[in-house]
Design goal:
5-stranded antiparallel β-sheet; homotetramer; alpha+beta
């Protein structure tokens, strides 16, 4: 497998299986001289942590991050930052029943066919546990680009949506509910819906919206490394993501140019922002906003038909402790990936003009 | 500017401004021994070519592709394939009126701010003319992975949609209409709509759907280089694209897991394919399908407010010959980018097992 | 700092400072299905280990390698192999005297000027301790290309040289002496010389020769990624290396073409091998051999003039336990780097022809 | 073939065969705002040009460089600079006699075995003609880092050496002789020697020395991307290069640490400079100097034994017009590659500290 690195100058490489001894990552290219705020990093980890509320998995993983290198006296030295998170809660026996079984809509079958040999325990490398490493690196990236405000929140759960533009929301309320939806009335409905579905052993999808504010003009590289192309890749690389749109997104397809174009103000800002803060792949200084679609979790606590390695269909039922809906925990992951993209482009952008 | 290369092993680097002497590209990593079918390449170029029908720009560009290297006696040698397309139809005077003007929802302003010095003629490097090079490289890539069938078509124009699953469409009819929509009844409506809007000097958005058939199991690299993440990036890097979804896409977000999961057949295929042929970032052998959202073209043949470099709002009107709707010409570009992604992953996949 | 990764498909990323909690690495791109021989890995680690003989540093570091991921039931899974080596013998107090001092011919000054903030303990990231990670990854790489025989040995210490072509040496005797020189008579003189110089607190340079046998025809990529260019970079990236030559090397510069050309045999082998097994950057199936120059260790157990951060010249004396000559311990490092280069090119070469 | 790109941020990709329609390259990552001095570029091209004197090949190639993109009104725009050099002097018939013949110590055999299909005319992609593109890109790179003085010269031809330290040479005299050796007395002997050998149809090797002056402290990235490691790779990637050493180089191996260490002056400069201006892979502000070994040209105007594709040994004689000794023409190539390395590291270095 290749493909475990993300970024050009600010580069994260992650490793680890959900039931190996540890997961972790290496950040290469973080500039020297950055004082690390470990509290802020921890806060993001807690937001992603399993077992945080009644609507997430009840699995408990402390997810203590241990830095091994690259930080001296609390400040980055310019050398690679390596970190590990031990897998302290490995109940491998939980997974013996899936050793030779390919669960529907999981990566079991494709990993087996691609690699021939796989760690089947808990999804192995395909487990969403890997995203903890993204949150660690994202927390460092956020500190590197601290003038940019990155805010993600749950914009829909199943068919329950926020029906307001993000400008009308109070972002301070995002963390006020366990579902991370700043519209508290809608949040209640979402929580209720998740609990309802959870009781039946079923799961729900949803969307996460992310807003990037105070982004300087000029981030992103034209042609193949457009800012939104890399943001899209970042988001689509998160487990369970099925779609990405920015600015007016799919809605733009049914608009006319005269409706969609953002007219300028004299200071270079625009009167509307259907473009979503990016023109020609380069940030224009307006808010960047995008929406990420998450499918419903594939592991059900219901009887389901699976395939075994001998080509027989078998009945199986998820025994583990799984999230009925991933979006509340996906919020910090979306933010982290956005931060990685922005930090990388911010560094690259230092080299664009003589 | 960095960011003009795409791919890891099968790597395309493009160059050129719309009004420079030529655009072109270099393909590095194309295996030796591939007999090039230049006719098939030319067909794709013709499908992208301006001036092909009454619903595209009337601008004529022959777009003759000249290969400079990497092919000997009609067969690739393993060395880089360089090609150029001369800009024979440069009417630079057409653009003198925008020298100091930033058009709304164009890349003029962001290029100026990022680079300080830019070729303003016809959008320069930000011009969609650059996509011609993608079609050239994509045509080579298609030949490298010739067992995979790549089919894109227009699935919506404005709010006129195909209301059928792609399985019910006859792909042979795609090229039967100038709008490249295989549902001929819908196609007629689309054409009518585009002509209507064109008359007013306005433009329309739309969507392109793409289906990848006969993809072997195992393409794509887990974690950051998931097959759909790279497809998403590829599509989002095309001019005017605002969104990407694959499989059930955004619809998946309002489904339950029990509805969305694709149950297996005994041969490893699945009964449904809401996943869109990819599990854990790796192709599972089922059809891969995705949808790409294009915004309406920003250049209007209407009076619009623009900003000049001195910070004054000015009135301007597009004088050039522009597409009222890009999706018919975007079809071969979407296919080309899909081919680049698949060819690259097909090469990488040769190294995944001992 | 960027630059902590090596390789394109078989890619090693290393991290860690000599006096942090651990050093380690991540190997991405190792194919699945490789059964790891941990004994053979351990043997290479022991050959690099400090404290192995009277002519190396007396410092003891167990250098126990702990794998965290990528191996399941003893076999690689295709996912990244991460490993750490804890720094159990960190005597940080040993280094407090150099906190504000730049030692001559060390990296103290350049790290300070480049990064502004550095871990000064034991050389930090610039310490040769980092090479332990290369040996780990090299041991895996060797197993991936197990048909290729990689043999390095000490070819000179100071001005004591082996005066025979490598074909006349018995490689089985390399490990028979602590200096890793297969000519036992010369080895004795080398050991004696090192002991002599060690007594005075001084140090010695030397050369390591490496022979790659049974390399298949076709490894290496023309132009910038020539096999010898990448081997050269690999070797020059090892601490203390000042030069690299392959085949006839610098001697070739005073030869005529008629003397230097290697005439063919009918089976494609050559009668002579002054080219060193590489033509046009691609292996030709003959032995590849090269020589690596190591400068004398810069840390002396003698009084020396150093510079402090306030711009004053100060007297200092190395207090640590240092090698009087690095070449005996460099032998497995040279082999490891060669293995990384070959493994990477062997994977890339799978994609060169259709 | 992969491997036709060099550099991370300032990245050159080259293409083209000696007897195709053109060779050329693309420079991606050149910052915007650089005013190009085409005269200075042309001077370097003329220094590399065949047919420049009686001691080079008599082949005439005008090597006119045509830029296709990335420069607008004489100034770089930040977009990729593509350039081509047409092959106007293709005498393909000259090479028909080698169609099925592998010349000794050429890349014919290895290309054939690696790729299966090759352009045999004039060495195809393996021809040193490719280095013209390096000189073009190097000339741009030099202008980007214009404060650094890059000077290469011929330090030996066969066994005729300059026996002075470079500090005692007058670099202004380098271009005063056709052999590019600033010690005019030695230059005469070199020229005489080359003419002598040329008469017999034989060839000679030699060395090129390069001195980089006024390099800022801090260029180069520790561990795998050490400044000298990348310089070494750059040089070893030039056709016919067999060795690289910097600073005291191979001589350092027979020195003691007390002799080799460079003691500091109070201003951070050093009293001696055996290290060659680099510590720990990072420039320290002192002169960087290195030596590059070139083997004798393999094409002789003598009868030689070659191998044909049917496994028979055949007699052949070089008919083309070839250099009796490459080093005079290699001087600008060495400089160009050094410039590419320095420009890339200068850009990367902008991102090393917050």
């Amino acid at each position: 497998m290749a493909g475990n690195s993300f970024g050009t100058l600010f580069k994260l490489t992650t490793f680890g299986e959900s039931h190996g001894s540890a997961i972790g990552g290496v950040i290469d290219g973080c500039p020297a001289g950055l004082k690390i705020d470990f509290n802020s990093l921890k806060k993001d980890m807690v937001r992603r942590m399993p077992g945080q509320s009644k609507i997430t998995t009840s699995r408990k993983e402390p997810d203590a991050v241990q830095f091994l290198s690259g930080i001296f006296e609390g400040i980055t030295t310019g050398t690679p930052l390596a970190f590990i998170i031990e897998n302290t809660n490995q109940k491998s026996k939980d997974y013996s029943h899936i050793k030779d079984v390919y669960r529907p809509s999981h990566a079991d079958y494709t990993f087996e066919k691609k690699f021939g040999h796989r760690d089947y325990r808990g999804g192995g490398r395909a487990s969403a546990r890997e995203t903890a490493c993204r949150v660690v690196a994202g927390a460092i990236a956020k500190q590197l680009i601290k003038d940019i405000k990155i805010t993600a929140f749950v914009s829909s759960v199943g068919n329950i949506n926020i029906n307001k533009p993000y400008q009308d929301l109070d972002f301070n309320k995002i963390e006020a509910t366990i579902v991370r939806c700043p519209d508290l009335h809608v949040a209640d409905k979402m929580i209720q819906k998740i609990e309802e579905v959870k009781k039946t052993g079923d799961t729900l999808g949803g969307t996460v919206m992310c807003v990037l504010q105070n982004v300087p003009v000029g981030l992103g590289e034209p042609v193949f490394e457009k800012l939104h192309a890399q943001l899209g890749k970042a988001m689509l690389s998160i487990n369970a993501v099925k779609g990405f749109e920015y600015g007016a997104g799919f809605c733009a397809t049914s608009m006319k140019g005269s409706e969609h174009n953002d007219l300028f103000n004299e200071d270079g800002t625009t009167q509307t922002n259907l473009s979503g803060g990016i023109q020609g792949g380069i940030s224009n200084g307006m808010d960047i906003y995008f929406r990420v679609a998450f499918k419903p979790v594939a592991t059900l606590i219901q009887q389901q038909q699976a395939l075994n390695s001998e080509g027989n269909l078998v009945q199986m039922k998820g025994k583990g402790r799984h999230d009925p809906c991933v979006v509340p925990r996906a919020v910090p992951i979306v933010e982290a990936m956005a931060a990685l993209v922005l930090a990388d482009f911010a560094l690259i952008n230092k080299t664009n003009k003589i």
